[in-house]
Amino acid sequence: MDHMPHARRWLGAILLLIIGLPVGCAKPPIVAPNRPEPVPAREWMYQESGAHINEAGPVFYGIGMAAGVRNTTLLRAAADNEARTEMGRILRAYINALGTEAGLDSEVNGDAQLLGTLSRNALQRARIVDHWRDDSDGNFKALCHLELAQLKKLIEAEFQLNPAQRAKMLQMADTVHQRMTARRGP
Prior knowledge:
This protein has five helices and four strands; from the N terminus they run H-E-E-H-H-E-E-H-H. It is an alpha+beta fold. It has one domain: Thiol Ester Dehydrase, Chain A. A four-stranded antiparallel β-sheet has the order 1-2-4-3. It starts with a helix and ends with a helix.
């Protein structure tokens, strides 16, 4: 009989747990979150990578797109990488054209190395400034952006250019940008 009060306590504790546990863990019903309105596509969405003129002046856009990846972080990283790759392609073409105007030859080893260094330094200054996800198809786009004014500052600071080359590149910077804009079309 000694064991009876002890068993009742255990039975009471178990009943309390069985009854109290579901009540203590009860949560309010889950309400589906309001889905935000789709973000409208931005102006850059309808343009191609290349030389452009926006409200800030002459700029370069590298536009990257990624699709088919379920992980949003990986999708965004893939779009960013594609945008940087596009920007690198555009800056190489632009700087090679500027170099040609300044009398540099991209086929000559020393000149090619200098132009390559300028292109890499310019790419380091380009920034991913915007993203957009199309909810209808899951495509993710990224915009890599560099203003021509930033590129001119880089050319001004490049110590490997002789003064005549530097002056000619700076003089032709806007003209070459306009040519690239015109070649791309409206």
